[in-house]
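I would like you to sit down with the record closing this message with an eye to the fold:
=====
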Amino acid sequence: MSGPPGQKPDNAASPGAAPAVIPGLVWAFRIHPDGTADELDVAHSLDEQHDGWLWLHFNLADTRSRIWLAEAPGLPDQARAALLGSDRHQQLHTTDRCIYGVIADMVRDLSQITDQVGYLRFAMTERRMITARSEALHATDNARKKLRQGHRLRNVAALFEVVIDQVADAIDLATDAIGTELDEIEDRIVSGRKFEDRNRLGKLRRNAVRLHRQLLGLRSLFHRLERDGANAMSEDMDWHVPRLVQRLDWLDHEVVATRDRARLLQDEVVAKVAEESNRLLKTLTVIGTLLMPPTLITSFFGMNTKDMPFNDVENGTLWAAMLVVSGSLATYLWFRWLSKARD
């Protein structure tokens, strides 16, 4: 069977002498017709003559993997370009025999998911799924664990569904974590206790915005696939697009609600801080106003001129002090009268 221009059959050898061991391969699985998966030893050559299909996962940080992917058999040129590209926006393209693109996923360290976003590049045909990444990603690592635990796959598209489900699970977990922290902050605000770590709330809101942006791009891909591309794929490449779309839509609703909640709490904290600042400013203004008459009086008595009041009067200092106090008291009473007249 011949493919489109620029595409080689799945069983064709790559140009030149292909190496016995595929370089840059992180892991490989062979999935049999009954859906069971066997993990292969990447240190040995892979037998291309088999009754199932392969999942090959590459590390793009290894330059040798890029050389192999540039000549990967059975892929159109556009799919190879997507695997080796540097695009940082999510995309999904379909042809008669290949589906390829880029999706965003959470970067993981040795123990847990991080806040960083990485990009999984993929290309799949009826006989092969090729994925590639530069950092360790949550979705592919969990998909690998599911296959090791005996998860069965009906076809190549089912593997991609598993990967997308794991991406959604990571977003769901991150959203729950943000919601838990927002609960603690809200309890603190409602109970009247001070919340001074505004940077923490800002980080939570930023994470929620990032999750929404990531999920919005993923939803757009599958909505477009459901509308334009799903019917054009062969039965062996068929997947449950409506189920994925429904889950991503529901998850986006949760993320948007969390994002809006973080924004409202941030606005409330800012309002409380502004209210506290205004209260302090009002207090300082009142104190400054009450001190103005005494300052004027003491400045007047501090002039080195003749015929100063109370200069030759017995208890002149006491009279001057009473004048200072009377000035502040008169100012206070005047402000009280203005306040009542305004009310």
